[in-house]
Each structure stands twice: as C-alpha cells, then as structure tokens.
C-alpha cells in the first residue's frame, strides 16, 4: 500500500480510526481510574477540570492568538443547550456512574456492561438525528460486541476491584447501565452542533466548560465540594489522575467527538467499545500477563466486526 493509498484510507475512515484511538486511550486509563482512592464524583470533577485546561492550551497553541476563543461567544442558545445536555448526561452523570461501576466491579466486569453502548447509541442516533444503519453495519456491531464480551467474560483469579468504595454487584451493574445510557445520549446530543459546523475540538471545549460548571454547582449544593477538595489534594489521588485525565478525558474525549463528527453514532460508539481488546497487549507488555487463546479469538471476532463496519461505510 503506497503513501497515497494510506492517506486515502485515513481520509475515508477518519471517524472510525478516531473511535479506535479513543478506545485505546480509555483502555490505558481505566486501570488507573479504578485504583484512585477518591469518590466517583470527585474523580469526575477533577478530570474534567484538568482536561478543560489542556483543551484551552491546545486551542491557544493551534491558533496562536486569543481570537481562538471567539466561538465561545458566537455559539447560539441551541448550541449551548445541546452541548449542556451532552455534558450533563455524558461527562458528569455518565462518567460518575462509570467510575462508580469501576470501583465496585473492576474494569473487566464494568466493560461487559458498557458493550451495550453501541446499540443504545444507534437508537439515539436514529431517534434524535435520523441516522440509519445498514444490515452490514448492524452485523458489524453485533460481531464487535460479541468479541468484546467473549474477551472480558474470561474468568480471572484476581479480583480487579480495589475495595476503596465497595458495593453490591447489582449496584455496580446498575451504575454501568446508567453510564451506557448517559454516554449514548451524550453522543447524539453533541453531534447536533457539529453537524451545523462546530468543530470537534471547539465542541469538546464547550462541553468540558459546561461539565465543570455543572459538576461544581452540584457538588457545592450537596455540600461535598470541601470534602472532595481535601481528598483530591492527597498525592496518591491527584498524581495518577493527571496522566489519566490527559489521555482518558482530554485526548480520549476529543477523539471521541471527532469520531461523532465524521461517522454515525452507532459506528462511533462501537469503535469506543473495543477498549478491552486494547487491554490484551497492554496486559502482556506492561503487566507481563499471559494472553489466552480465548482472548485472541475474541479479539479476532471483534476485528472482523470492525472490518464489517468499515465496509458498511463505503
């Protein structure tokens, strides 16, 4: 494959590839977030605040001038409402429920639940954006979800839950399901303004500003802000959250929004759900864990589903 063919491939499938890159970022950071000794709401507020700073710096560096923030003032009420709803459902409620599920179930079992995001995302895209998927795309979603479930349902002798904030399995599943619904709805709401011309980076920044504002007001109203601030000042809390916020929220959410902008919601969310596949090489090279034949077979099934999704976009 020549350089021109590679460029054409990346151009044709930039949304799908961005979704896969986001999944890789989330695979890397899910192991970190699950081990942070802080309440789920505090983790959400911290990582959104840090990511907001990274996004602001990126906007200023890419433009080289303060005029880079002109879109903040130019956004109309409808844009703010759509992105506000997306921030609330995805970056505040959805992420808080996801982190709570991670704390109770651990990454492996939580990711079993989150494989429901693609069909829920496709449904939201159909209801809110009039997006339709071909039978080939639905087959790809089914294969990918099946491969991911096959991988992460493999039994492990190690309890991945760190025991910082324990809860019942049923509660962990409920939080995971709420996270799925929140993320799927957030995807559909965020795509509306981007279809009207707002760029992925700009939309990500606006969502993050609103998420920090909503999260701060909610924490203050509940009287939890001082307690959370005290917990987040501990070195064992903020130190791992900095790189996790960079890769998982700043970079991961930006890639996620780029995927929403350039492909259908059902396809994008399916790409996002492949995080467990990326954990296989991560566990092998970084944690020196053996890779089973079952994990390899599940990864192959998921890749076959991804191939069908790429074909469905032709």
Can you tell me about this structure?
The protein contains 15 helices and no strands. With about 325 residues, it is mainly α. The mean pLDDT is about 85.
Summary, kept brief:
The protein has helices spanning 3-12, 14-33, 40-63, 70-74, 77-105, 107-114, 117-129, 135-152, 169-195, 200-221, 225-232, 235-262, 265-272, 275-285, 293-312.
Give the tags.
single chain; 314 residues; mainly alpha
Structural class: mainly alpha
- What is the count of DSSP helices, taking H or I runs of 4+ residues? 15
How many distinct folded domains? 1
Order of helices and strands: HHHHHHHHHHHHHHH
CA-CA gap between termini: 19 Å
Mean pLDDT: 83
C-alpha-based Rg, rounded: 19 Å
Poorly predicted spans: none
Proportion of strand residues: under 5%
Overall 3D geometry?
globular
Report on the biggest sheet.
none
What oligomeric state do these chains adopt? single chain
Topology (SSEs and partners):
Elements: H1 3-12, H2 14-33, H3 40-63, H4 70-74, H5 77-105, H6 107-114, H7 117-129, H8 135-152, H9 169-195, H10 200-221, H11 225-232, H12 235-262, H13 265-272, H14 275-285, H15 293-312
Helix pairs in contact: 2-12, 2-13, 2-14, 3-5, 3-10, 3-11, 3-12, 5-6, 5-9, 5-10, 6-9, 7-9, 7-13, 8-13, 8-15, 10-12
């Amino acid at each position: 494959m020549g350089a021109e063919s590679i460029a054409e491939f990346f151009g044709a499938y930039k949304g799908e590839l961005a979704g896969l890159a986001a999944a890789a970022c989330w695979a890397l950071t899910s192991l970190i977030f699950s081990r942070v000794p802080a309440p789920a709401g505090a983790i959400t507020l911290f990582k959104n605040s840090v990511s907001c700073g990274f996004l602001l710096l990126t906007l200023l560096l890419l433009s080289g001038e303060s005029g880079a923030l002109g879109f903040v003032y130019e956004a109309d009420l409808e844009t703010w409402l759509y992105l506000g709803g997306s921030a609330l459902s995805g970056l505040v409620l959805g992420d808080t429920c996801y982190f709570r599920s991670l704390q109770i179930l651990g990454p492996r079992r939580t990711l079993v639940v989150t494989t429901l995001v693609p069909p829920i995302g496709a449904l939201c895209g159909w209801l809110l954006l009039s997006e339709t998927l071909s039978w080939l795309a639905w087959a790809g979603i089914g294969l990918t979800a099946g491969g991911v479930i096959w991988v992460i349902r493999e039994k492990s002798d190690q309890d991945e839950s760190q025991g910082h904030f324990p809860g019942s399995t049923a509660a962990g599943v409920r939080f995971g399901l709420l996270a799925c619904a929140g993320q799927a709805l957030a995807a559909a709401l965020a795509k509306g303004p981007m279809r009207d011309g707002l760029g992925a980076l700009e939309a990500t920044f606006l969502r993050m500003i609103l998420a920090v504002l909503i999260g701060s007001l909610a924490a203050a109203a509940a009287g939890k802000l001082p307690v959370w601030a005290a917990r987040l000042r501990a070195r064992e809390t903020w130190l791992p959250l900095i790189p996790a916020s960079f890769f998982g929220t700043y970079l991961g959410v930006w890639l996620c929004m780029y995927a929403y902008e350039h492909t259908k919601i059902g396809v994008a969310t399916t790409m996002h759900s492949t995080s467990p596949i990326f954990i296989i090489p991560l566990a092998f090279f970084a944690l020196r864990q053996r890779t089973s034949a079952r994990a390899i077979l599940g990864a192959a099934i998921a890749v076959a589903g991804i191939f069908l999704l790429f074909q469905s976009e032709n």
